[in-house]
């Protein structure tokens, strides 16, 4: 097979339509494969409660197996409550919907003679266990770091379900090596693609610090508001722009109000054209509790925007070369983060040097280059 021989490619995830880095990656890969002539299905197991449009005119088929998002977790307070007729009816309805969803996917798989199933998460791999796809080849993805896996059920799920697949794909070579040391012999590294490469770098003169992602606890945007308020206390022309929706918006607004910077913190919500949004920024900041290989750092770098981030993983270090393309500080050290942010705010020349170097740093993550690596992986498996 040549690398451009059309293949049947299924990308399967639990929720593929919410706003998030892994969802963006799945849509980007699906469109990229489709534009290269592959027959592509992007399949979400559950619909998103807040769907986001990633590709305006997709070249791939897109389906969702369940009709509704998952219900809130429920636990019976007593044995009698568990056996209540209404609860038993609900349980039967849930089983029927699950069986119908798996039957829909089995029919999609059976409609092709061969191909690949790219599994977007270990939880999707668990769900797929009850579906027959023995005639297809499987590749499991994990969009977070080995460290994150060790502090969640994901490590055991990966070690249980990914060895049976042709390949297990992780975001950095250090992460893949850590999984190989845990006796996962098929582990390999393949970075996520940057969905865009602006022709010209951002001007870096807008006096805007930006953060991109869900407004949720793990992102620790309260830390960023703290650092912004301290670093820019005597820089009234600077603003903080938060791109993304989420449950913590009211709390973050109140926090900014308490710090006296409410008028300088802009909540931008979900934005469709992120390439244009990055060009509005002079600095991108990442204050998360944990990250694997965050797309925001790759996307900002592609736009020529310097980044300041906590040093959270090997994936972060591969995207931000400390002192050359951006600044990394010890995890959770908000004083160091504030100092690093202030340095970038004050030094326009440093922002420009970092920004230029950052574009070169992530050039290998351009979509065509990453698609070449995926097709080489298909070739390797086919041999």
Automatic annotation (TrEMBL):
A Pfam family it matches: Glycos_transf_1
Highest taxon in the source lineage: Bacteria
GO molecular function: glycosyltransferase activity
Domain Glycosyl transferase family: 203-359
InterPro entries: Glyco_trans_1
SUPFAM superfamilies associated with the record: UDP-Glycosyltransferase/glycogen phosphorylase (SSF53756)
Keyword entries, A-Z: Glycosyltransferase, Transferase
Protein name as catalogued: D-inositol 3-phosphate glycosyltransferase
């Amino acid at each position: 097979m040549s690398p451009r021989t059309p293949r049947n490619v299924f990308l399967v995830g639990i929720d593929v339509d919410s706003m998030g880095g892994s969802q963006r990656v799945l849509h980007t890969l699906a469109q990229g494969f489709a534009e290269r002539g592959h027959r592509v299905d992007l399949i979400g197991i559950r619909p998103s409660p807040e769907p986001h449009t990633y590709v305006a005119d997709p070249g791939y088929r897109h389906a969702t197996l369940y009709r509704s998002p998952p219900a809130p977790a429920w636990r019976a307070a007593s044995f009698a409550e568990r056996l209540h007729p209404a609860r038993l009816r609900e349980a039967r309805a849930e089983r029927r919907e699950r069986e119908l969803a798996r039957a829909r996917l089995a029919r999609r798989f059976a409609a092709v003679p061969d191909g690949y199933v790219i599994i977007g998460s270990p939880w999707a791999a668990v769900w797929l266990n009850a579906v027959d796809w023995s005639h297809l080849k499987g590749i499991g993805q994990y969009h977070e770091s080995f460290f994150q896996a060790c502090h969640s059920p994901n490590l055991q799920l990966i070690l249980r379900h990914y060895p049976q697949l042709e390949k297990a794909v992780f975001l950095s070579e250090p992460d893949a090596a850590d999984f190989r040391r845990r006796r996962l012999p098929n582990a390999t590294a393949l970075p996520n693609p940057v969905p865009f490469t602006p022709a010209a770098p951002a001007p870096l003169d807008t006096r805007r610090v930006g953060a991109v992602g869900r407004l949720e606890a793990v992102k620790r945007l309260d830390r960023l508001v703290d650092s912004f308020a301290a670093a820019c206390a005597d820089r009234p022309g600077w603003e903080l722009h938060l791109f993304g929706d989420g449950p913590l918006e009211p709390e973050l607004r109140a926090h900014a109000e308490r710090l006296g910077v409410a008028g300088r913190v802009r909540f931008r919500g979900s934005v469709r054209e992120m390439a244009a949004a990055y060009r509005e920024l002079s600095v991108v900041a990442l204050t998360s509790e944990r990250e694997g290989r965050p797309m925001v750092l790759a996307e900002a770098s592609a736009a020529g925007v310097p980044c300041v981030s906590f040093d959270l993983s090997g994936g972060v270090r591969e995207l931000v070369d400390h002192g050359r393309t951006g600044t990394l500080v010890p995890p959770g050290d908000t004083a160091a983060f504030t100092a690093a942010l202030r340095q970038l705010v004050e030094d326009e020349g440093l922002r420009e040097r970092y920004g230029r170097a950052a574009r070169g740093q992530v050039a290998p993550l351009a979509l065509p280059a990453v698609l070449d690596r995926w097709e080489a992986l298909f070739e390797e498996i086919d041999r």
